[in-house]
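Today's session is about reading a structure prediction critically. Students often jump straight to the picture, but the first step is always the sequence itself: look for stretches that repeat, for charged clusters, for runs of hydrophobic residues. Only then move on to the predicted structure, which in these notes is written as discrete structure tokens rather than atom positions. Here is the chain we will use throughout the hour.
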Amino acid sequence: MRRVIFHLDESDKWQLALNNVNNMVDYASEEVILLVNGPAISGLVKTSEVSDRLKHVLNKEVKVKACLVSLTNKGISQTDLVEGIDTVPSGVVYLSDQQHHGASYIKP
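Below is the predicted structure for this chain, in token form.
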């Protein structure tokens, strides 16, 4: 099975990114990862306007990864995140590593 990693770093792209992720899960047999960093990181909190959609993709076994550097820079605690989201030390290092190991890269 191939891996696909969606990279979201722009707050105004949340809806598009989640639509793309849902389409990938619904129409292809791929391992899907959504990596979030930069300004978009605020969308991962329990009180965000996309939290219900995040729970939906997590229930579809999408792996959602949050950049710890971005969380720290925004003053967001890991306990503030929607349940089921994992953190990675650095989003850009994680992206590079995933691509090096064969993941397809998509940036909505």
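Discussion point for the tutorial: Residues 14-27 form the longest helix (14 residues).
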